[in-house]
Write a structure and sequence with these properties.
Blueprint (H helix, E strand, L loop, with lengths): L7 H12 L8 H9 L2 E5 L5 E5 L1 H34 L2 E5 L3 E5 L2 E5 L3 E5 L10 E6 L2 H8 L2 H10 L2 E7 L13 E6 L2 E6 L10 H9 L11 H4 L15
Parallel strand pairs: 7-8, 8-9
Antiparallel strand pairs: 1-2, 3-6, 4-5, 6-7, 9-10
Helix pairs in contact: 1-2
Length: 241
């Protein structure tokens, strides 16, 4: 790889060949990968040719994996931090949910980084919240252009928040319908509160929550007590007949 630039398209094609049976496409990208020595042609006993990722190509794939991990780790760490804060606040939180929301005349899929509701048995008190996490300015700006995504979030929650790493944007760059939290180290600073709206979760969202597993939280230890189940009495206690 020394002295050779690998484009995103080339990295993607290498992954595709690695995961597939190696059937050739015979396009310009394949020519570049063959010329660079990252792919090689293999003649099968039947006479046809397939493609195989070489050791040099595997090194490119390993480099791509490490780059992706380095990019995701700060984001995933902040997602975990926000989700934990929600459970500490007495809420039930999920990460990586896929929710369907009505936007205009159609439907849109929404995948909030953190989705949470209050720990309550009263539907009107759920106060669902969406937290979208951004640690890179380029990702934030690209996300802000997706108005349909934000509209889907607003259909699913009473409060929509952006959590941004300190220094990547000013709070006034975030649309006013969303609150802003700024993450600096282990601290989440309130930059602007989210407007609160009354809403009820649509049935499709309830079904998605029923299929998903929430983040373990503070309520787990006292789950039976919340359900009204009598706990074992202290040793030595005499129970009534």
């Amino acid at each position: 790889m020394a002295g050779q630039e690998v484009s995103a398209l080339q990295r993607r094609r290498l992954r595709q060949v690695w995961r597939s049976a190696g059937w050739p496409c015979q396009d310009a990208v394949e020519v570049e990968l063959l010329a660079a020595g990252w792919l090689e042609r293999v003649r099968q006993p039947s006479g046809h040719e397939t493609l195989r990722v070489t050791d040099a190509g595997i090194a490119v794939l390993a480099d791509t994996l490490n780059r992706n991990r380095a990019r995701l780790e700060p984001h995933e760490a902040l997602v975990e931090q926000v989700a934990r804060e929600m459970t500490r606040a007495g809420r039930i939180a999920w990460r990586g949910l896929s929710l369907r929301a009505r936007v205009g005349d159609g439907w849109a899929m929404a995948m909030p980084d953190v989705f949470s509701v209050r720990h309550t048995t009263v539907e009107d008190y759920l106060e669902p919240r969406v937290h979208e996490i951004k640690v890179r300015r380029a990702d934030l700006l690209a996300d802000l252009k997706r108005e349909s995504k934000r509209a889907a979030y607003l259909q699913l929650c009473s409060e929509c928040w952006y959590v941004i790493r300190a220094g990547i944007a000013r709070p006034d760059e975030i649309p006013p319908e969303c609150g802003v939290l700024v993450a600096e180290g282990a601290t989440l600073e309130l930059a602007r509160p989210a407007p609160k709206r009354a809403m009820r979760l649509p049935f499709a969202a309830w079904m998605a929550l029923a299929r998903a597993t929430p983040l373990p939280g503070w309520a787990d230890d006292d789950a039976q007590a919340w359900l009204g189940v009598q706990q074992d009495p202290p040793r030595g206690t005499t129970l009534p007949d």
